[in-house]
Amino acid sequence: MLKTNGENLPEVSEVFKEIIEPPERMFEMLRINVKHTSEMAVTELIKVELTQFCEKKIQEINGRRRSRKELSQWELPQEIHS
Fold first, then answer.
1. What is the pLDDT, as a whole number, of residue 79?
2. HSE-up of 47 (CA within 13 Å, CB side)?
3. Max Cα separation, the chain?
4. Which among 16, 42, 55, 80 counts the fewest CB atoms within 10 Å?
5. Strand runs (DSSP E) across 1-82, as ranges?
């Protein structure tokens, strides 16, 4: 619970009056907040998608390297070398 003394309570009520009196200002503040929150959510989503994409590509590259390494260890018949 918010504890207030008699001195800062009028300050709080003045702030609320300033916000509520012109409704356009309140809606503008809400719009800015929604826009900011949306941008943050999309940014985080893109980060997650890029991270998963990059991790998948790294796994594919490492898998190809392993399979090439395994192939190079096999002994191929002489006729294939020539």
1. 56
2. 6
3. 97
4. 80
5. none
Cβ neighbours of residue 12 closer than 8 Å, sequence gap 6 or more? 4
The four Cα atoms 52, 57, 63, 67 give a dihedral, to 10 degrees, of 170
Whose tokens are 């490492």? That residue is 62
CA 30/CA 34 separation, integer angstroms: 6
- Tally of residues, the chain: 82
Spell out the alpha helix ranges (H) of the chain: 9-20, 23-73, 78-81
Residue 72 one-letter amino acid: S
pLDDT of 51 reads 94
Average predicted confidence (pLDDT) for the chain = 76
Torsional class of 36: left (φ above 0), alpha (ψ -120 to 50), beta (otherwise): alpha
